[in-house]
Structures are given as C-alpha cells and as structure tokens.
Amino acid sequence: MSSNTLLNALHSRRSVLANNMCEPGPNDEELHDILKAAHRVPDHGKIGPWRFFVFRGDKRAEFGAILKLRFAQKENSASAKLLEFEAQRFMRAPIVIGVSSNPNLQHKVPVWEQELSAGAACQNILLAAQALGFKAQWVTEWYAFDEDINKVLELNENERMAGFIYIGSTKEEPSERVRPDLNERIIHWGE
Ligand SMILES: Cc1cc2nc3c(=O)[nH]c(=O)nc-3n(C[C@H](O)[C@H](O)[C@H](O)COP(=O)(O)O)c2cc1C
After folding, report:
1. To the nearest whole percent, how much of the chain has pLDDT over 90?
2. Per-residue pLDDT averaged across 36-50, rounded?
C-alpha cells in the first residue's frame, strides 16, 4: 500500500452504524489479520494491556440472551420490543469484537498509558477492517459499563471494556459527517 493510499483511508474513515450492517463479515483469515493489527499498537513496556473477545455465529445470540436478561433486571418496565432488541443486539453485525483494557497496576508504566494503548487497539481494528473492505463501528453502549456483564465476560479486577467493535458490510454507504474544527484544536506552541 502506498503511503497515499493509507493517508486517503485515514482521511476518509467513517463508521457505519451497527444497525446498518449486513453479511458478509470477515472470514477466519481476515479476522486474524484484523486482530494482528490490533495487537500491533504502541505498547509501552511490552505489557499487552488488552484482550479481544470475539463474538460470532450462534454465540452472538447466546450473548444476546444474556444481555436481554440483564436489561430486564435493570429496567423492570422495559417493553417486549426493547427486550427483543437486546436479544438481537449482537446479531446486527456478522462479528463483534469486544476490546478490554487490562492494565498491569504493578508495572511502572502508568495505567493511563496502558489504557490509551487499548484505545489504540480499538482504532486499529476499525482501520484494519476498513483496509479489508469491511465497515465497522466502535461502541460502548450500556453493557460495556455493566458489572454483571463484566462478570459474564470474566474480566479481571482492574479490567474494563474499552468498546465493542461491530464489523460487517453495508448496503448503505454513510454520508459525510460534520466534524469538529481541526484548526481550533491545533496549537503551534510558541508561534
Ligand atoms: C470509546 C467510544 C465509544 C463510543 N460509543 C458509542 C456508542 O455507544 N454509541 C454510538 O452510537 N456511538 C459510539 N461511539 C461513536 C462511534 O464509534 C462513531 O465514532 C460515531 O458514530 C461517528 O462516526 P465516525 O467514526 O464516522 O466519525 C463511540 C466512540 C468511541 C471512541
């Protein structure tokens, strides 16, 4: 890939909403390539402070059943329609990758740096999916912050979800999106 191709991809990156996704998703080899890219992020101290949870095939519905149960517990007046949405949540895309931040608190590298590294892993998943011609969206939604769901995922004590990345195809290309002003965010220090 020439550097221009990479730059164009970076400049044109857009998320596709999980709700607008369809088959096909990555095959085993493509999934491996995506995870390899995620694993290649800057990682001070070679800690690897992240884990990847892959949901595919029937496991998406199995996890959806857990989400539905938990949602019903939390929101006891939830309508049948909302509960059904929870059951189908992970079926919106062919593959969902949950990325956790799993820092080593004993390490001299600050936890903040380790957390940033997990965020970079999420971003690399988006970019690798795009490079393979897929669409992706990084979301947290409610279940990334739910203690009971963390238990289902068997997260370690200091581990938390950085996000869930939905990956698939779409029938509807996204339009451009208004972006915050870049110039307002650039400081040429001292100039
Ligand atoms: C950490 C993180 C969590 C996010 N969680 C959600 C979410 O729960 N729901 C949502 O609609 N968008 C969420 N987003 C935003 C989308 O991933 C996406 O960036 C947004 O829809 C804008 O599209 P764009 O990536 O093309 O700019 C999240 C983004 C980040 C970085």
Report:
1. 97
2. 98
Task: Identify which of 19, 67, 122, 140 to mutate to test ligand 1's pocket (most ligand atoms within 8 A of the CB).
Answer: 140
What pLDDT score does 72 carry?
A: 98
104: its two tokens: 């080593």
* Residue nearest atom 21 in ligand 1 by C-alpha distance: 15
What distance in angstroms lies between residue 153's CA and the mean position of ligand 1's atoms? 22
Domain boundaries, the chain: 16-56+93-172
What is the CATH topology of the domain spanning 16-56+93-172?
Answer: NADH Oxidase (3.40.109)
**Residue of 20, 96, 137, 178 with the most ligand 1 atoms within 8 Å of its CB, for mutation:** 137
Backbone angles phi, psi at 71, to 5 degrees: -65, -40
DSSP state of 51: E
Whether a cis peptide bond, with omega within 30° of 0, leads into 26 is no
Q: Tens of pLDDT along 95-113?
A: 999 999 999 999 999 999 9
